[in-house]
Design goal:
Elements: E1 6-10, H1 15-29, E2 34-40, H2 50-64, E3 68-74, H3 83-96, E4 100-104, H4 111-126, E5 143-147, E6 159-162, H5 167-175, H6 178-181, H7 197-211, E7 217-221
Parallel strand pairs: 1-2, 1-4, 2-3, 4-5
Antiparallel strand pairs: 5-7, 6-7
Helix pairs in contact: 1-5, 2-5, 3-4
Length: 239
């Protein structure tokens, strides 16, 4: 299998669409192979069911142009950072061999989001250990990014990706999840404000875009400092 360049891993079907679909679409249009791992089937969601969400996820993947989307089969509302779950993610990483991985932000109101972040970061490291007991050849991603969309934590984003040209495609992918979002006012880390959910997503992405002086953006956080080689050509003006 040809390696995946950019892999997004999230707890539930639709998490990736909400947080970083624009970035995946942008990468795919730039010629990179993109992929998604949904850890659970979303079977405990108040709305819809696992079969419906599987169809919606497949449709959304086609909209985003991802090369591969897989489900890890972990229990919804029951993700834990165990040896068994780490091994399952390690084997997916070794098979897909991503260069860069996008993970959920380490904090979140749904425990699956928070635990998935820790679990998958651990798996990214363990996947590179030659003697780790899991199938596949050792592989460790070069970079881990945390999708920071909709978080209100006092942690400034490391960078924001301009997804203005990709925003309509992102919204088309989100609209695939009609069982979850049609008529909704809140989802995941998006808290209700009285607005329609789709409008709330637009407003939030417009806010992130405003931080880098563009129409729409998606924010990310990294634990390590980002290197800049040309301070004269940096893109966001101060005044």
């Amino acid at each position: 299998m040809k390696p995946i360049d950019l892999l997004a891993i999230a707890a539930h079907r639709d998490d990736v669409e909400l947080t970083c679909a624009g970035t995946l679409v942008k990468a795919q249009r730039a010629g990179y192979r993109t992929g998604i791992v949904d850890l659970t089937a979303g079977e405990t969601a108040t709305l819809g069911d696992a079969e419906t969400r599987a169809r919606e996820a497949e449709q959304a993947a086609k909209v985003m142009g991802v090369a591969e989307r897989v489900n890890a089969g972990m229990p919804d509302a029951g993700i834990f950072n165990t040896q068994e779950s780490r091994r399952a993610v390690v084997e997916l990483i070794r098979r897909m061999r991503p260069r860069t991985v996008i993970l959920p932000f380490p904090a979140g109101r749904h425990p699956d989001h928070r635990i998935a972040s820790e679990l998958c970061r651990d798996a990214c490291y363990l996947a590179g250990l030659a003697k780790y007991d899991a199938s596949g050849e050792p592989h460790r991603p070069d970079k881990v990014l945390y999708a920071q969309a909709y978080r209100e934590d006092p942690v400034k984003s490391t960078f924001v990706v301009d997804v203005s040209a990709e925003f309509d495609t992102k919204m088309k992918a989100i609209h695939c999840y009609s069982s979850q979002f049609d008529g909704a006012q809140a989802a995941g880390e998006l808290f209700a404000t009285g607005q329609d959910l789709y409008e709330l997503i637009r407003v939030q992405n417009a806010h992130y875009g405003s931080l880098i002086r563009c129409e729409y953006g998606e924010p990310f956080y990294t634990l390590e400092t980002v290197r800049i080689d040309d301070v004269v050509a940096m893109g966001v003006t101060t005044f």
